[in-house]
Amino acid sequence: MPEVLNGEIKARIVEIRFALSGKISNVSKHTGDNVKKWDLVASLDRKILQIELDQQLADYEKVRADWDYFTKKYPDPQDDNKFTKAEKQAILNASVKQVELSKAKLDQSDLFSPVDGIVIDDSGIVPGLYVTPASGSIKIIDTGSYYFEFGIDQKDVLDFSKARKCRLTFNGVKDQLEGETSLVLADGKKFTIKVNLSKIEGVMLGMKGEVKF
Predict the structure, then answer these.
(1) Dihedral of the alpha carbons of 128, 130, 135, 141, in degrees to the nearest 10
(2) CA 179 – CA 146 distance, rounded (Å)
(3) Side by side, which strands form the sheet with 13-16?
(4) What are phi and psi of 112, to 5 degrees?
(5) How far is 5 from 176, CA to CA, in rounded Å?
(6) Ranges under pLDDT 50 in the chain
(7) Taking a C-beta distance cutoff of 8 angstroms, is the pair 176, 169 a contact?
(8) Coil, strand or helix: which one is 51?
(9) How large is the greatest C-alpha to C-alpha distance in the chain, in angstroms?
(10) How far is CA 195 from the centre of its chain?
(11) How far apart are CA 148 and CA 155, in angstroms?
(12) Which residues contact 52 (CB under 8 A, 6 or more apart)?
């Protein structure tokens, strides 16, 4: 096995998008911006969704009033009234679910980052643009997932049957970094090793570097 092996920094890239179609009302984060987990990234116009929720709440109040009237009139329903009560209960339950569904849709009008990272592609979304779940995706590098990856020859696979401590050097990074290898990965064409880094200060996606054991 060579004393020095070359590789590069990689990371998980998270792609987020709205679950609903709608018009963009606000964009809080753009390409190049840092984000913290649960930072607001963008929002859809909430007017129509709020109207839908208000309508469902009004329908619920009507159904609930009908239910309260019936249960007071028939506190101990018999025969046919039992079936009527069951029907009204089902209508009330359905109304509650409709309110919950409308509330969930309203909550989904805000798009949040699920990770700490950097926005690398905002798809050019701007306020006033109409998007669907199939469009307007935003890509974020999960900076907490940085790792170093290098390739090996088949003859060296046994050398990495167990985790190994190593040191990494990068142009543009002042200090050497320490890491530990994981198991060999094979995709049918090449053999690669992932190195989990003890710290990630100063590294960036795509940085080329050297690993020594």
Answers:
(1) 20
(2) 12
(3) 13-16, 138-142, 117-121, 34-35
(4) -115, 155
(5) 15
(6) none
(7) yes
(8) helix
(9) 88
(10) 24
(11) 21
(12) 102, 105, 106
Instruction: Record the tokens describing residue 166, joined without a space.
Output: 């190593």
Q: Tell me, what's the pLDDT at 1?
A: 67
Closest by CA position to 193, among listed 11, 7, 13: 7
Give the pTM.
Answer: 0.81
- Joined tokens for residue 7: 């590789």
At residue 165, what is the residue type? K
Q: For Cα atoms 69, 75, 79, give the angle at the middle one, nearest 5 degrees.
A: 105
Contact 163, 30 (CB under 8 A): no
Quick one: tokens of 19?
């679950």
Question: Which residue bears the tokens 């019936």?
Answer: 70
Reported as type and span, the H/E element at residue 48 is helix 47-73
Q: What tens digit of pLDDT does each residue of 108-122 get? A: 999 999 999 999 999
User: Which residues contact residue 140 at a Cβ distance below 8 angstroms, ignoring those fewer than 6 apart?
Assistant: 13, 14, 15, 16, 35, 113, 115, 117, 118, 119, 120
CA dist 115 and 70 (Å) reads 50
